[in-house]
Design brief:
By secondary structure, the chain is mostly helical. 53% of the residues lie in helices and 3% in strands. Strand 1 and strand 2 form a beta hairpin. Helix 2 runs antiparallel to helix 7, helix 2 crosses helix 10 and helix 9 crosses helix 10. It is globular. The N and C termini lie far apart (39 Å).
Length: 205
């Protein structure tokens, strides 16, 4: 039998996913963002980009720099980022507030151009991403997997469209965070809140 994920007792005494006790800034992120369904294209694009930046790093590093990333990448408005030039790449490489990795910076700009095309073709990024929402009975136990058949499928689909830094693990973390799945641990006080939010959520089409 698989052991259930450990839980963390928050400041209010209620149980939460164990990982949110690893750093002070994780608690608010866990309670107000992680797993709640998102239909906003800029937030979806931001998250998939930040997951790409996280590759090889910790989410704490990226979360601490998130406001700097938002400023550097104009609120992750992919229409504006698509117009970035080589001069912008050089500017971003000098920005100590973000992760100065040329490949990842160039991938955001490249993916922004792909996002413009995809949003035009599909009506929105949200309509496309939510097409890959898994069936609940196909999911592994909460926080017991780092990929899923649906994250593999979305990863392959995005790569076929030319996107970069969108491997299955990156995509799975994106799906967890943006509410395409409810991966809060059994017993976590936020799991039921996310479930209620998902129930009210209108899947973009």
């Amino acid at each position: 039998m698989t052991d259930l994920p450990k839980l963390y007792s928050g400041p209010d005494g209620q149980a939460r996913c164990h990982w949110c006790g690893a750093a002070p800034e994780f608690l608010h992120y866990h309670d107000t963002e992680w797993g709640f369904p998102v239909a906003d294209d800029f937030r979806l694009f931001e998250k998939i980009c930040l997951e790409g930046f996280q590759s090889g790093l910790s989410w704490r590093t990226i979360l601490a720099k998130r406001e700097n990333f938002r400023a550097a990448f104009v609120g992750f408005d992919f229409h504006r980022i698509a117009q970035f030039t080589a001069q912008d790449v050089q500017r971003l490489l000098q920005d100590a507030g973000i992760v100065r990795h040329r490949g990842k910076i160039e991938a955001v700009i490249h993916n922004a151009r792909q996002a413009c095309t995809l949003a035009q073709q599909e009506g929105s990024l949200a309509a496309y991403f939510w097409r890959f929402e898994p069936q609940p009975d196909s999911l592994a136990a909460p926080q017991s997997a780092s990929t899923s058949p649906d994250s593999v499928a979305l990863s392959k689909a995005l790569k076929k469209l030319g996107w970069k830094f969108v491997g299955p693990t990156t995509v799975y973390a994106f799906m967890q965070a943006m509410g395409l799945i409810n991966d809060h641990a059994q017993g976590c006080v936020v799991r039921s809140q996310v479930a209620a939010s998902r129930k009210k959520f209108s899947v973009p089409c």
